């Protein structure tokens, strides 16, 4: 099936909304829609249904969007969060001044660490975002692609024996290695070497998706140890074993950005990373994250925050 038509709803400058898969297990291009906060409810429902099915959607030529318009579109899909959970109020205000909204994070900020390690956004918090909306503002003519992986397909592809092991495991996620760092006072555009707010959360290695019921592997670069396993070498080996299933090429899709492109992904069933092959050429992409739920394990238990604002507030 080369494409499917998701109804006949139209916007002012669009034809029928169509979803065309671009890889076997993840990813689809959506055409026939001009993204905005004024989309008809039926179109929004169909877009979200496609997100749940394909895990990541790509919309080309959305040049009309600015930071405020991006946030208004994102708001139709969920509740936007602050730009980044570890940014102090001063940095949140700076992001608001620079990008027009406190909800917008520039993931191409030259002061940040490279986001070139596989990760699920903010998985070190007790409520990782349910989704992300990423808009290409300035991109190199070649290089700088982003790759997404389907963590539900990765779980489904595990041998039964490994699924049974994964279902019982919990991992500790921490932001000690996050690519976003706050500005130290008086340091201009430089970043502090360590974030002042440390998050640590115990998550099930397998989470049950709250909308689809799918089981997905919750790992990535923020998962650094296995709960209850004191031997670090054994813990790393286990994490590597399941992580390598996530990033198998068959479970991935790679997107080459053009200015005006927008990607929307289900953060509860994916990981992603940038391909850092563009040297020092400018690359600026604006992300809006949508508030998520506390992950639930196969046995019904919920994730447990160890440190961080959510833990101090009682989760």
From TrEMBL:
<feature type="domain" description="TauD/TfdA-like">
    <location>
        <begin position="19"/>
        <end position="288"/>
    </location>
</feature>
<dbReference type="InterPro" id="IPR042098">
    <property type="entry name" value="TauD-like_sf"/>
</dbReference>
<dbReference type="Pfam" id="PF02668">
    <property type="entry name" value="TauD"/>
</dbReference>
<dbReference type="InterPro" id="IPR003819">
    <property type="entry name" value="TauD/TfdA-like"/>
</dbReference>
<dbReference type="GO" id="GO:0051213">
    <property type="term" value="F:dioxygenase activity"/>
</dbReference>
<keyword id="KW-0408">Iron</keyword>
<feature type="compositionally biased region" description="Basic and acidic residues">
    <location>
        <begin position="90"/>
        <end position="99"/>
    </location>
</feature>
<protein>
    <submittedName>
        <fullName>TauD/TfdA family dioxygenase</fullName>
    </submittedName>
</protein>
<dbReference type="InterPro" id="IPR051323">
    <property type="entry name" value="AtsK-like"/>
</dbReference>
<keyword id="KW-0223">Dioxygenase</keyword>
<comment type="similarity">
    <text>Belongs to the TfdA dioxygenase family.</text>
</comment>
<feature type="region of interest" description="Disordered">
    <location>
        <begin position="80"/>
        <end position="99"/>
    </location>
</feature>
<keyword id="KW-0479">Metal-binding</keyword>
<keyword id="KW-0560">Oxidoreductase</keyword>
